[in-house]
Specification:
Elements: H1 2-15, H2 19-28, H3 30-41, H4 44-60, H5 71-91, E1 96-97, E2 103-104, H6 120-128, H7 132-142, H8 147-154, H9 158-179
Antiparallel strand pairs: 1-2
Helix pairs in contact: 3-4, 3-5, 4-5, 7-9, 8-9
C-alpha cells in the first residue's frame, strides 16, 4: 500500500505542473514564439507585440493547458487565433482607404493585420476563393454575426458553424502565410 501512495504522489506531481514550471517553459520558448509571430506580421516590432500578447494570454489561461501535451502547438494555435481575431476586429474599425487600396485604420495601418503587406483586394480574393461551405459562415462571422445567428440563418448545427469558421480561419492563415 505504501508503494501505491508514492506512485500516486509521483503521478500527480507529473500531471500537475506548477505555475512557475509552466511560465518557465513558455519563457524558454520565447525565441520560437517571436520567430513564429514574425511569419504572420513580417515586421519585427509587430512580431514582438504579437508574441507578447500570446505569452500573456498563455499565462492567463494556464488552467486550460493540459499537462503532458504539446505546449508549442498550443501556443501556435493561440497566436494564430490572436492574429486572425486582430485582423477581423481591426478591419471593423476601418475609416479610410489610401490610393493603393490598402486599409488604413484611424490614420495608421492595422497592427496585426496582413494589410501592411497585402492589399485588401488580395485578401478578399483569398476569402472569396474559399469553398462556399466555409466562406459563407466565415464571412458572416467576419461581418460580426454571432455563431448562433449564423447557424439559424444557414440552418446548420452550431458545432458545424464553429467548425467551418475554424477551418476557414486555418486555410486563410495558411494562404496569407504562403503569400508572404
Amino acid at each position: 500500500m505504501f508503494s501505491h501512495v508514492i506512485l500516486f504522489k509521483q503521478l500527480s506531481k507529473t500531471l500537475n505542473m506548477t505555475t512557475f514550471e509552466f511560465q518557465t517553459q513558455i519563457l524558454q520558448l520565447s525565441d520560437f514564439i517571436e520567430g513564429f509571430a514574425l511569419k504572420f506580421t513580417r515586421n519585427e516590432e509587430n512580431a514582438k507585440d504579437l508574441a507578447q500578447d500570446t505569452i500573456l494570454k498563455a499565462f492567463k489561461n494556464k488552467d486550460k493547458f493540459a499537462p503532458n501535451t504539446n505546449l508549442k502547438g498550443w501556443l501556435m494555435i493561440m497566436m494564430r487565433n490572436i492574429f486572425i481575431n486582430g485582423v477581423r476586429k481591426k478591419s471593423n474599425k476601418m475609416t479610410t482607404y489610401n490610393s493603393d487600396d490598402y486599409k488604413v485604420i484611424n490614420g495608421e495601418t492595422d497592427f496585426y493585420s496582413p494589410h501592411n503587406i497585402l492589399g485588401t483586394k488580395e485578401i478578399m480574393a483569398i476569402i472569396n476563393g474559399l469553398p462556399d461551405d466555409l466562406r459563407v459562415p466565415f464571412y458572416r462571422h467576419y461581418e460580426g454575426f454571432k455563431y448562433q445567428e449564423i447557424a439559424d440563418e444557414l440552418g446548420l448545427p452550431l458545432g458545424t458553424v464553429k467548425s467551418r469558421i475554424f477551418q476557414a480561419r486555418k486555410l486563410l492563415a495558411a494562404k496569407l502565410t504562403d503569400l508572404n
